[in-house]
């Protein structure tokens, strides 16, 4: 798969549906291009500015998010069947504009090693700092990177958690700028809570991180769920904006991985072998 061509032909997130007010024209940037969209009734009309000529964009509403594409025939979006389950709460945790490559934002989302140091007494705590071995595979049929058997002891791993829990994670990377986390559901251990990081590449060194929750939770209000997740993202923010360089190096020689970085290493290799350049440093 040629990621560079696919990137411009694919769907990209630009807003949480809850944030779109009918009759208002919204302006943003996507892949370095000026785009705008407006919802009139049940229909979203979108366009992009091509050197003064306004060309149509294709719009899709799915997973609590508005997606746009420059292509007339973009490939199908990845599947997240949990969003169709009637008893789940779909809540936006907000959209944050960040001065870093969207690839950096995704890689930070995949990193369990920082939990005790950045999310102290929430997602981790000293002296429990080791990341246990986990499995990473490439599902070639759908071209996704999957990490399973990820475990980490967390003092409060979820808004519904009432005590410390050995939280289990599954990570899916479905696109270079899209990652989905399945995590232990404290209210129903037979199911997974689903946390999605949908990243909008504004340009190569700016992004908007759209976070969507798809939870089994009849305890917390939307505001409580949103506050918990925004607290986590706020703690990550200083890490993200201080990353140097802002674009993500894909060469194995640029940054030295450790055992805990198995997933990040697979993510970089996947993009490198797929020929991605946008938002990355390939030398």
UniProtKB/TrEMBL annotation:
Transmembrane segments: none annotated. Keywords: Oxidoreductase. SUPFAM superfamilies: Bet v1-like (SSF55961). Residues 103-273 form the Vanillate O-demethylase oxygenase-like C-terminal catalytic domain. It comes from the Bacteria. InterPro entries: Cholesterol_7-desaturase, VanA_C_cat. PANTHER family: BLR4922 PROTEIN, IRON-SULFUR DOMAIN CONTAINING PROTEIN. This is Phenylpropionate dioxygenase-like ring-hydroxylating dioxygenase large terminal subunit. It comes from Paraburkholderia unamae.
């Amino acid at each position: 798969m040629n990621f560079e061509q696919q990137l411009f032909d694919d769907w990209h997130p630009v807003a949480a549906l809850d944030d779109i007010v009918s009759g208002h024209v919204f302006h943003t940037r996507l892949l370095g291009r000026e785009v705008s969209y407006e919802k009139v009734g049940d229909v979203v009309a979108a366009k992009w500015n091509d050197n003064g000529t306004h060309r149509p964009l294709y719009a899709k509403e799915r997973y609590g998010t508005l997606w746009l594409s420059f292509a007339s025939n973009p490939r199908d979006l990845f599947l997240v069947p949990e969003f169709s389950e009637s008893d789940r709460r779909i809540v936006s945790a907000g959209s944050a504009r960040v001065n870093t490559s969207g690839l950096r934002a995704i890689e930070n989302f995949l990193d369990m090693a920082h939990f005790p140091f950045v999310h102290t007494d929430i997602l981790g705590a000293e002296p429990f700092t080791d990341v246990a071995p986990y499995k990473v595979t490439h599902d070639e049929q759908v071209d996704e990177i999957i990490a399973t058997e990820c475990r980490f002891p967390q003092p409060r791993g979820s808004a519904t958690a009432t005590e410390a829990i050995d939280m289990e994670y599954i990570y899916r990377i479905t696109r270079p700028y899209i990652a989905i986390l399945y995590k232990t559901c404290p209210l129903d251990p037979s199911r997974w809570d689903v946390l999605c990081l949908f990243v909008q590449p504004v340009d190569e060194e700016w992004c908007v991180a759209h976070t969507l929750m798809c939870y089994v939770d009849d305890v917390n209000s939307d505001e409580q769920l949103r506050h918990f997740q925004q607290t986590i993202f706020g703690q990550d923010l200083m890490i993200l904006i201080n990353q140097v360089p802002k674009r993500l190096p894909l060469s194995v020689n640029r940054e030295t991985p450790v055992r805990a970085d198995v997933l990040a290493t697979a993510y970089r290799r996947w993009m490198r072998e797929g020929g991605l350049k946008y938002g990355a440093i390939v030398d």
